Each structure stands twice: as C-alpha cells, then as structure tokens.
Amino acid sequence: MATINFGGVLEEVVTREEFPMEKAREVLKNEVIAVIGYGVQGPGQALNLKDNGFNVIVGQRKNSKTWDKAVADGWVPGETLFDIEEAAAKGTIIQFLLSDAGQITLWPTLKQHLTPGKALYFSHGFGITYKEQTGIIPPADVDVILVAPKGSGTSLRRLFLAGQGLNSSYAIFQDATGRAKERVVALGIGVGSGYLFETDFKKEVFSDLTGERGSLMGCIQGIFAAQYETLRRNGHSPSEAFNETVEELTQSLMPLVAENGMDWMYANCSTTAQRGALDWWKKFKDATQPVFDELYASVAAGKEAARSIASNSTPDYREKLNEELKELRESEMWQAGAAVRKLRPNA
Ligand SMILES: NC(=O)c1ccc[n+]([C@@H]2O[C@H](COP(=O)([O-])OP(=O)(O)OC[C@H]3O[C@@H](n4cnc5c(N)ncnc54)[C@H](O)[C@@H]3O)[C@@H](O)[C@H]2O)c1
Ligand SMILES: CC(C)(O)[C@@H](O)C(=O)O
Ligand SMILES: [Mg+2]
Ligand SMILES: [Mg+2]
Questions:
Q1: Where in the numbering of this chain does the KARI N-terminal Rossmann domain appear (predicted)?
Q2: In this predicted model, what pLDDT tens digit does every residue of 235-250 receive, in sequence order?
Q3: Is the beta carbon of 208 within 6 A of some atom in ligand 1?
Q4: Catalytic: 236?
Q5: Taking the model in full, what pTM does it have?
Q6: What is the end-to-end Cα distance of the chain in Å, rounded?
Q7: Residue ranges covered by each domain of the chain
Q8: Which atom number of ligand 2 is nearest to the Cα of residue 41?
Q9: 107 and 134 in contact (C-beta within 8 Å)?
C-alpha cells in the first residue's frame, strides 16, 4: 500500500508496483474465475483476465445475443463458455456481472453453487447494500469482495488494449478464508485496473449511483440541454449551439482538464473567458447543490435502487430503455451533434 495525499487527506492505495501481474497470477493460480454475465463489464473483465493469463470461464444464457457475442469474442462453448449454472458450479471465484436487477432473479440459483471457500465477486455494492430489496445475503463461509472499475467496461477493455489501465475501487464485505484481501487485489490487477482505491460496499454504491445520476451522466445532459435551449431560443443555429455547448467541451477543453486540472484549462482560455467562468461557476454550484443533496438522500434512502430494480425487472426493460435513448438521439441537439461529429477534421 502506498500512502498518498489527496488534497490534504491521506489515503492508502494499492499500486501495480507493489502488486505486479506476476504476483496476481501466483495468488490465483489454482482458481477458476467464472464471469457470470456478458453485458458491458463481463466482456471487459473476462477478456482482460484471459489476456493477462488467468484461468477464466464465462457463464451466459444460451440462445441469447450475448452468448453469440461471447463466441465471436473467442470463448469456446463447452471449454470456456457455459450456461450460467454450469459456470457457477465450476468457478471457485464467481464474478457476478449480470445487471443489478438480473442478479436478483438469478440469486436463488447462484447461491446453491456458493460452496465453502469460494469467493463471490461484485463490481457494485448494490446487491449487498440494498439486501432488503435484493434478497442477496451470501452464506457466511464464502469471501465476498468487490472490484468496481471507475468507468465503462468498454473503456476498461480499450485502455487495456492501449497498454494502459482504468482505476478501480475495491472492498471486502466478508473474509471467510483469510484470503479475501489477496484475492480481491489480485483480481483488481487482473481485470486491468491501474491503481486500486479502498472503499466499502455501501460507500461504493452511494457514490457510484450519485455520480452516474449526477455530474457523469444525468446532470451533464441536463446542463447541455438547458444551455442549448437558451442559445436556440435566442436565435443561434443548431451547429453554433452544439459547438458552444458540447463539441468544444469534449474536443478541446476537457482533454486540458484531464491533463492538468480546471485552473490549467481556464489558464489556456482568454482572460475574458476566465473572468466570466470564475464569476459564474459559483452561481451554477449554488443552483445545483440542492439537487445533488436531494439525489444523495434518494440514493441513501434506497429509492434509486427501488426505481432501478422495478424498471429493469420488467420483461421489456431493454426496449423501454432503448426507446428513451432513441428519443435523446433524435433530439435536435444530438442530431446536430451527429452532423458536427462528421465534420471533425480528423474523422
Ligand atoms: N456497465 C459498466 O461499465 C459498469 C461499470 C462499473 C460497474 N458496473 C456493474 O457491473 C455489473 C454488471 O453491469 P453491466 O452494465 O455489465 O450489466 P448489463 O446491464 O450489461 O447486464 C449484464 C448481463 O446480464 C444479463 N441479464 C440481465 N438480466 C438477466 C436475467 N434475469 N437473467 C440472466 N441474465 C440477465 C444481460 O443479458 C447481460 O448479458 C453491475 O453490477 C453494474 O452496476 C457496470
Ligand atoms: C460506467 C459507470 C457509469 O461508472 C458505472 O457506474 C455504470 O453503472 O455503468
Ligand atoms: Mg454504476
Ligand atoms: Mg460507476
């Protein structure tokens, strides 16, 4: 563990220097890692583990699109690809990577395969933290661990293929074997994490649900839509409104923030822009703070979990989500975006 100062607060971080891939392979050399579910995280984690030299199998529903995707990705039926129950029976570490709602349906089946000494692995604190709603209560004689990549499974795989990594949170809920720590850290390194930040299941799910509903996904779309509408109402063309709301942010300014922070990005803009941004950011913070507080309270009360479980458990949940995504895609702002993307000089 390295002690690192985060803005004045000291935290322990696991690094690849102290826990290299060789050590991770040694720790897991006798394990069969069964990745259950092949949606977004499933492929990223399973393929990274396989390419890193771990013993991995995939469990997926037969006769499904994702089964075919797994075959196309190189998993071999009967050798490294099985139906869910068979994979769960074979695995000594079970990576439960169905959707959070799907985990509830599968739980009664899966728990029968959690024999003593196995490890149950999650990439989200959801199932365990909201146990009153999910019914996911593991037996006492298995390890219960978490590695949650802080980003999309798609990015986890892309960054791995680019020779980089994506940082993850890790947590131990239950250490039945005395090996939970080495297992979880080895898995974190194996799935392609760069650094591993310690947390617990509850903190992981509360922060993750807040982040994706907030600044990462929900809030960002809301702010884009509001600014775009203001510009359009005042007679600006769709291309001008989109460029000034989204394109410049993703193409020019966010890479500067990612590289060296907000003040660095500001410093690379005009003093006119700096004056305005420094004046206005606090107004935006004050306007949105009550919404963030409401959001966190809803997460902590289990209301976001209830909403997600109810809506993602209906037989047509995927079609319903796709309908709403289509509405977003077909809005003028994102249609303008599609046209703007085609005009990127490097495209
Ligand atoms: N998507 C991400 O990049 C991401 C990032 C970090 C953590 N996570 C967490 O990782 C886990 C997996 O997320 P995901 O986005 O990969 O999941 P997903 O929504 O893509 O679903 C994964 C698989 O579950 C299957 N599934 C859903 N309901 C099922 C059911 N009733 N029976 C059998 N299979 C069913 C789906 O067909 C799919 O193949 C979740 O706990 C999620 O919160 C996801
Ligand atoms: C990729 C995210 C948003 O970080 C993850 O939390 C998810 O739920 O997909
Ligand atoms: Mg999430
Ligand atoms: Mg997340």
A1: 10-199
A2: 999 999 999 999 999 9
A3: no
A4: no
A5: 0.97
A6: 43
A7: 1-198, 209-341
A8: 9
A9: yes
